[in-house]
């Protein structure tokens, strides 16, 4: 059981991987990692149901790297995922894990990147391919990728991928791997399509389920500040300064709000950048990477543009306005307090928002503690300052 696995060394990993995991700052495996890694290492198929933020990338990434044969000249593992953003994230995490395995060649292939760049990267056969379905098929058809010796195929975010209409592509990809390929599927929900693919391509798969809520979910302290619209930027800045926050996300419902917030914060010489739907993809990647690398402190985003962002160490999330969907509230605050780290979420509301607030509280079963601002300090209801 996961509960008995206290550390990564209990999983009998190689020195190289253990060192990399320590360097990445991980102390203990998350439940999905503790449950998946040993089963994958046995060579068994896996179908894992696990929500976002539970550490799935390492759950499959670690065993994939452990199972690689440095001598084998062919592509041994393929990871198929729905979006370019995910493709890049997975590739980065695998490269971090493979830091002490310098011989490992990992290539990301996804739509939108110039073909030439990928062809160059593929000149040397990758041990591991991370790909979106369409572009992977392109390469298979051109003969620049060959999956005939793949040992493990991973479908990440399988439900999303199949929902996006990639089912035929995914079948073609799996058909191009040997019949006894280990097939590992990760999905937030087990939809009918996911079941179908599992039924068709998996054998005696181990079913793994982990919950979003639970021991691996860190506490996110949620605060509520009543504040008129025109005072909100000043209020957010006061909180950021009072708590000395260096990495925060601010959410706004509309593109125009996000644009305006970013401009006004910039005017106040805040270190800020923005993400919304009107920003071209190439620039979005740059903004996200910049935020990840700590090049600026405040990222302002719409709910949609922030989807798929995976940044560690977001200290606090601000809801500049009340999200339009209850579910967005959870998505927003889930950007902080990832994987064991504590986080804070501040919601700014007007008197007129009472009804929506009650709705969100009911939907999310969450407590928001009311705060006030006084002389540059953030105070809880009983007058104790937040620090
Ligand atoms: P998922 O794919 O389930 O949404 P990710 O694999 O993207 O989750 O992991 C979410 C975050 O948690 C990433 O920033 C990752 O680096 C971090 N993480 C993964 N495993 C651990 C761990 N064992 N301890 C701490 N942080 C971890
Ligand atoms: Mg993931």
Describe the overall structure.
By secondary structure, this protein is of the alpha/beta class. It has two domains: 2-209, 3-Layer(aba) Sandwich (Rossmann fold); 218-380, Rossmann fold. The mean pLDDT is 91. The chain is elongated and about 65 Å long. A hairpin with a 2-residue loop joins β14 (369-374) and β15. The chain starts with 14 loop residues before the first helix and ends in a 7-residue tail after the last strand. α2 (31-41) runs parallel beside α3 (56-67), α3 (56-67) packs across α4 and α13 crosses α14. The strands form two sheets. An eight-stranded mixed sheet has the order 10-11-9-12-13-8-14-15, with helices on both faces. It has a seven-stranded parallel sheet with strand order 3-4-2-5-6-1-7, sandwiched between helices. It has 14 helices and 15 strands. Bound molecules: adenosine-5'-diphosphate and magnesium ion (MG). Adenosine-5'-diphosphate (ADP) binds next to α3.
Structural class: alpha/beta
User: What CATH architecture of the largest domain would you give?
Assistant: 3-Layer(aba) Sandwich
CA(first)-CA(last) distance: 38 Å
Using only CA atoms, what is the Rg? 22 Å
CATH top-level class of the largest domain: Alpha Beta
Helix content: 25-40%
Number of strands: 15
Annotation field: number of helices: 14
Give the overall average pLDDT.
91
Strand order of the largest sheet: 10-11-9-12-13-8-14-15
The biggest sheet amounts to:
8 strands, mixed
Predict the CATH topology of the largest domain: Rossmann fold
């Amino acid at each position: 059981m996961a509960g008995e696995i206290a550390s990564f060394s209990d999983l009998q990993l190689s020195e190289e991987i253990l060192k990399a995991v320590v360097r990445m700052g991980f102390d203990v495996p998350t439940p999905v990692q503790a449950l998946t890694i040993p089963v994958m290492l046995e060579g068994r198929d896996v179908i894992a149901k696990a929500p976002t933020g539970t550490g799935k990338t390492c759950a499959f990434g670690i065993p994939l790297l452990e199972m690689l044969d440095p001598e084998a000249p062919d592509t041994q593992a393929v990871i198929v995922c729905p979006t370019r953003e995910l493709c890049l994230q997975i590739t980065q995490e695998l490269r971090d894990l493979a830091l002490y395995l310098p011989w490992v060649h990992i290539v990301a292939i996804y739509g939108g990147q110039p073909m030439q760049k990928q062809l160059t990267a593929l000149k040397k056969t990758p041990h591991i391919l991370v790909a979106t379905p369409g572009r992977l098929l392109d390469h298979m058809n051109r003969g620049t990728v060959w999956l005939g010796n793949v040992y493990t195929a991973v479908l990440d975010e399988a439900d999303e991928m199949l929902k996006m209409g990639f089912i035929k592509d995914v079948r073609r990809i799996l058909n191009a791997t040997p019949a006894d390929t280990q097939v590992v599927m990760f999905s937030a929900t087990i939809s009918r399509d996911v079941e179908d693919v599992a039924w068709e391509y998996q054998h005696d798969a181990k079913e793994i389920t982990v919950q979003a809520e639970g021991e691996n979910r860190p506490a996110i302290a949620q605060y509520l500040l009543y504040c008129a619209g025109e005072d909100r930027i000043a209020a957010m800045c006061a909180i950021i300064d009072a708590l000395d926050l260096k990495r925060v996300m601010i959410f706004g419902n509309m593109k125009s709000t996000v644009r305006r917030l970013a401009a006004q914060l910039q005017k106040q010489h805040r270190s800020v950048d923005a993400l919304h739907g009107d920003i071209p993809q190439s620039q979005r990647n740059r903004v996200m990477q910049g935020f990840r690398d700590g090049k600026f402190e405040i990222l302002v985003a719409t709910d949609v543009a922030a989807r798929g962002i995976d940044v560690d160490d977001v200290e606090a999330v601000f809801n500049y306005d009340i999200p339009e969907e209850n579910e967005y509230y959870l998505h927003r605050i889930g950007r902080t307090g990832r994987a064991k780290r504590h986080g804070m979420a501040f919601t700014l509301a007007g008197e007129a928002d009472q009804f929506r607030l009650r709705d969100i509280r009911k939907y999310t079963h969450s407590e928001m503690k009311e705060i006030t601002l006084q002389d540059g300090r953030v105070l809880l209801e009983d007058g104790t300052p937040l620090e």
